[in-house]
Amino acid sequence: MSAEWWREAVVYQVYVRSFADADGDGEGDLAGVRSRLPYLADLGVDALWLTPFYPSPLADGGYDVADYRDVDPRYGTLADFDDLVTATHAAGLRLVVDIVPNHCSDQHPWFQAALAAGPGSAERARFVFRPGRGPGGEEPPNDWLGAFGGRAWTRVTEADGSPGEWYLHLFTPEQPDFDWSHPAVVAEFLDILRFWLDRGVDGFRIDVAHGLVKDPSLPDAAELQRFLTVDPAAPPMPMWDQDGVHEIYRGWRQVLDSYPGDRMTVGEVWLGNLHRLAMYTRPDELHQAFNFRWLFAPWTAQAVREVVDLSMREVAALGAPTTWVLSNHDVWRPVTRYADPGRPGSGLRRARASLLLMLALPGSAYLYQGEELGLPEVTDLPEEVLQDPIWERSGRTARGRDGCRVPIPWSGTAPPFGFGPPGSVPWLPQPSPSRRRPPTRRRRCRWCAPRCGCVVSCSAAWASSCAGSTPATPASSSWPATVSTARRP
């Protein structure tokens, strides 16, 4: 491809654990991804984006990283990664990897050292530790909530057995937030970028890119707090989109620009204010930022046109490309999300139409694995197999995101449908290949306001539309009997 390949690229997201299982252990792996490169090249995409493959306890599907410079043994080795880079480039494709800078795993050596070192230590200064409020510090430092449920603070027990400080985790307690005001954190991630750039990666998808910097006063915010919202009317919040985050990305841009081959970054930035979103793509910052207003636009011509016009207008002045996203590993699949209970087959037809429009729009498009197959959300996974932390953190009221992460069907009429060798058992059960039954009901979100832009707090978790209702829920889930391949015109 020509210089600045990312401006008009189609990037295919690979959720590694659910894409292809080469060794038969029930989980996808890097060798499996490599084996399917001919399919991706034939599909006509320009690049693939790998979700985290780093060592992780999987408290949040790999977004709790214990080591940023290695490969989790369940997915392979660094040698397997190097082979994948070589094979990807030989196939004429680019490779983008996920990086998770807002937080790490509580098993990361830095956090383990922070727990052992105690209050006031240099080790704790790399995270957000604070004393509690109230008598004996029994209350957390502020009223912030966790994105997956519960409060955003956990109290530690000190080495002498006494109740100690609290640490911040905007997601799960197993994902402590870094303190990006600390020079060591800044330097560490610049080195992590270089480690993977030296191995040949073409870019990075940045997880929670708008969340690295917090208001240093850590004010109370529960009355304002909205999680990962695309509501343009959402008020500013002290844990998201702080101005200081832009200086971090200017430093990252300098590192990427020092490498040949037109390396790139794309940020996961959940903002409904498209002007604020566009600021992340100024010429000396990120190359792209995800446009989630498009993903959650209601199914009306007026709403779609408004989002398209606004999106293109806001980035035009900066010379940055627009990005288009209909699906990913955090939201219900479009076939289910767009379904009208009174119109059988409407979800698939609407998903196809939206995908066709997305691929025709100027800018770059991001496809989630299986989107080209017309796969629906798997809504009836047994409760005992659910692994998303949303399930437990919500008191088992929100099933979470496992339904869009079910291993991909490749061939055959029985599990594992080519996902792994015959006889292997996928880590999440796959539904039957018959056509799914039509949706049966629609319900209002019981957590959100009428003009809902909130994703995580919905009763259907990560799936609400801007109209404030959850997607129609099918009576059962199954793979479509036929599949179609979408190519960019």
Question: Could you describe the 3D structure shown?
Answer:
This protein has 489 residues and is α/β, with parallel strands linked by helices. The chain has two domains: 5-101 and 182-436, Glycosidases (TIM Barrel, Alpha-Beta Barrel), CATH 3.20.20; 109-168, Oligo-1,6-glucosidase, Domain 2 (Oligo-1,6-glucosidase, domain 2, Alpha-Beta Complex). Helices cover 23% and strands 10% of the residues. The chain contains twelve helices and 13 strands. An eight-stranded parallel sheet has the order 9-8-7-3-2-1-11-10. A three-stranded antiparallel sheet has the order 4-6-5, with no helix packed on it. Helix 5 (183-198) packs parallel to helix 6. It starts with 9 loop residues before the first strand and ends in a 15-residue tail after the last strand. Mean pLDDT is 88; it is low at 435-476 and 481-489.
